[in-house]
Amino acid sequence: MAANEILDIKKLKEKFSKFANERDWEQFHTPKNISMALSVEASELLEIFQWLKTGDKKELSSEQLNQVKEELADVLLYSIRLADLLDINLEEAIPEKMEQNAQKYPVEKARGNSKKYTEFT
Amino acid sequence: MAANEILDIKKLKEKFSKFANERDWEQFHTPKNISMALSVEASELLEIFQWLKTGDKKELSSEQLNQVKEELADVLLYSIRLADLLDINLEEAIPEKMEQNAQKYPVEKARGNSKKYTEFT
Amino acid sequence: MAANEILDIKKLKEKFSKFANERDWEQFHTPKNISMALSVEASELLEIFQWLKTGDKKELSSEQLNQVKEELADVLLYSIRLADLLDINLEEAIPEKMEQNAQKYPVEKARGNSKKYTEFT
Amino acid sequence: MAANEILDIKKLKEKFSKFANERDWEQFHTPKNISMALSVEASELLEIFQWLKTGDKKELSSEQLNQVKEELADVLLYSIRLADLLDINLEEAIPEKMEQNAQKYPVEKARGNSKKYTEFT
Q1: In chain A, where do the E strands start and end?
Q2: Among B48, B116, D89, D115, which one is most buried in terms of CB atoms within 10 A?
């Protein structure tokens, strides 16, 4: 694994914005449409795994692993595009949600089971 | 917008891995299951926009905007988790896919239309 | 429109079951995997509409309309397959859900707005 | 299982159309929006199975089985609504697609494997 792995979201927002602008695609890039495109990409990722047992690395061909990499990148690109369109700061949003999830799923209630937090007793 | 907006993916991978480990959730976190969870979160995002006109910022209530922020964070968290499980480096994957998209959609063919690249003449 | 439009679900269940059996696909057709396949098909349908304005019939090319027809058929086929695997009777399930929806969305509260029932005051 | 299991699609189209009309929901029921709603329901179905092993009937609680039944009904209802909006006859579309699938996946090539037809050699 790389020593570092950093995403400069501000720069990626700018690059995708320029990409859309050069193609006169702003007319198509409403938040609604981007939410659809993101969901479509997430399903293309899902499709790779649909008939597999667990999708572990050893179960994937190198071609499938490469496809996962590409679809995952598309999911992230549309996520970043949507964040840009709605002025959402992802550097803030992600740790906030992680904190929320930790509170929804305290270790003592969540350990070893996959229940939704709404089903905890 | 923030002066900077950086995601330290390596650190986020480690945090999510620790979160899963503490809850004994590795048994559930197969790549296949995570691809499902990612798709479910992408659909929860989609749901917010389903009856809206464009989903522009001014069409969203502050509550809806906050929901978008939260669902987007979950999409990114599962994307990062999947990348971790399959040793995918996102700092490499994203610019590679952007480059591919630029080649699939050259400005002169893509300008002003939303055709899929497979339909270019 | 046809004078009648009837689906013989029992027969369709049997046909799909035979189709899977002949291909030795029962090993892949777990309810979990079929729920994934169904979701993938629903997204292929979604993809057709992602950059369109409303997707009204006059906005669709005859090729797109045909694609919608095909993807919709796949959604229904996997729905029927899942119902078969879990012994769900769709002739009962559909009117029951319609009745539930009518109670969740009474005319006086739902008229002219697209709020979710959980947000009614 | 019931001796018969029949869906009268024409009648279901009329009932859903009346349901939407009474609530002044035609403004929201564009084909595009219905494709989103359908995809959202398919994901709610997917969510039930996301952490399960196979989702076989014996692995589901009676509550989960009931949820599957309800989400499946919603998928079918939106499918029928979309077919109505675009004048698609499902009694024709389904056997046509089944025939297509049989040609894409001939027994001798498909037996015992889950490859996509585009990968057959």
Answers
A1: 6-8
A2: B48
